[in-house]
Amino acid sequence: MKRLLLYRTVEKVHFHIFRALSGKNRKIWGKRLSQQSLYLIVVASCFSGCKGKQTVVKVTPFSHEIPAASPRISYPFMGLIDEEYQLEWTLLKNLPKKRKYFKRLSFFVKNLKTKKIVLNNLAPPYSKAKLRQIPKEKLVLILWEPPSVFLHQYQEDVLDLFGTVLTWNDDMVDGKKFIKFNYPSLRPIQENLPSFKERKFLCMIATNLKFNDFEKELYSMRRKAVEFFESKPEGTFDLYGKGWEAFKNAKGRVPDKLETLKDYKFNFCFENTHVPGYITEKIFDSFAVGAIPIYLGATNIEESIPPECFIDYRQFNGFDEMLEFLEALSEEDYNSYLTHIKAFVEGPKSAPFTRKAFCETLSQTLN
Q1: Percent of the chain with pLDDT over 70
Q2: Would residue 302 be called left, alpha or beta, if left means φ above 0 and alpha means ψ between -120 and 50 degrees?
Q3: Considering only CA atoms, which of 147, 264, 248 is closest in space to residue 205?
Q4: Which residues share a beta bridge with 139?
């Protein structure tokens, strides 16, 4: 059956190329095309006859370069994918162009054993025309970045190119094409952490940037927080990350985020956007080192993480009210947050944010 389909595909490609040639070139090229077609059919037949033990799944990296290590090693969140799948790297830029007929056929032959192609975001530059050459049921898009970063990958004509889309966005999930996943960001709580009295007050670790004008972005709120603390006494607030050099509280970049965070009682955890389900590593990094998160992001955060584990910025009318609240918290209050955080991180409610849960979701998608 596979060989019959391959033969028909080759003949179709041959027909379109032959039709595009002028009369005098058809005689010259016709024989060459027939020879090439026959050669590709033979090669394809060899591939179709192979019966490997593993099913191939191609994976695109987050960058435009192939990492040195395999997907399972480079991306630990994929390390627990069922061993029946052989994960291999691929790059979108290597997809053949629409009019590169033989390259398209060669790509088809080489990917006979490829069950799925998993895209970690649709990072620009990309070609919708190239993607349309691949059957959509083979294409899986993981929407890691929110619209405030990659707005284009949320456009309807782009999403139509994919048979399956994994998304954190609870408003998009339908359990059919759009499958729910959570960021696999859970970390264990570190031991021998500084005490309440040994810690400094408040910090933020973030990059000062804005990618587009998505209406629910939170980069602007981060800047408002930074600007508010410009007039406060030194030591009230420390700011880390790229792009903040013009602000007085800026301390530059950090080589190790957790090592820096564990020296503070409180940490701003303002996500990139406030959309249902968007819960990233920010709050879990704070949990791991005992820095109580001041959270703003997923509008339904309390459905996933108990409200006793974090300080919800939405309860305040502004930064003045928030600062007054923080300064009034006692060591007992602080330790109460830590107790609830420990119960959550080490309990069953945190399971959806583990690597195991992510791999189970992706494995089910690949089946």
Answers
A1: 81
A2: alpha
A3: 264
A4: 117
Measure the CA–CA gap between 20 and 101, rounded to whole angstroms: 12
Kindly tell me the burial class for residue 58, based on how many C-beta atoms sit within 10 Å of its own C-beta (0-12, 13-18, 19 or more). buried
Cis bond upstream, residue 125 (ω within 30): yes
Nearest-10 Cα torsion for 123, 126, 129, 135: -40
Are the CB atoms for 63 and 75 separated by under 8 Å? no
- What's the whole-model pTM score? 0.83
Give the chain's end-to-end CA distance (angstroms, integer): 22
Distance CA 354, CA 67 (A): 24
Number of H helices and E strands in the chain, helices first, is 12, 11
Phi-psi category of residue 252: left, alpha or beta, with phi > 0 → left and psi -120 to 50 → alpha: left
What kind of architecture, by CATH, is found in domain 200-345? Answer: 3-Layer(aba) Sandwich (3.40)
Is the CATH number of domain 52-184+360-366 3.40.50? Answer: yes
pLDDT at 104 (0 to 100)? 57
Phi, then psi, of 42 in degrees rounded to 5: -65, -45
Amino acid identity at 293: P
CA 195 to chain centre: 34
Residues 337-362 have pLDDT tens digits of 999 999 999 999 999 999 999 999 99
Give CA–CA dist 28/68, Å, rounded.
Answer: 45
Beta-carbon contacts of 78 under 8 Å, excluding residues fewer than 6 positions away, are 59, 71, 72, 87, 359, 362
Domain boundaries along the sequence of the chain = 1-51, 52-184+360-366, 200-345
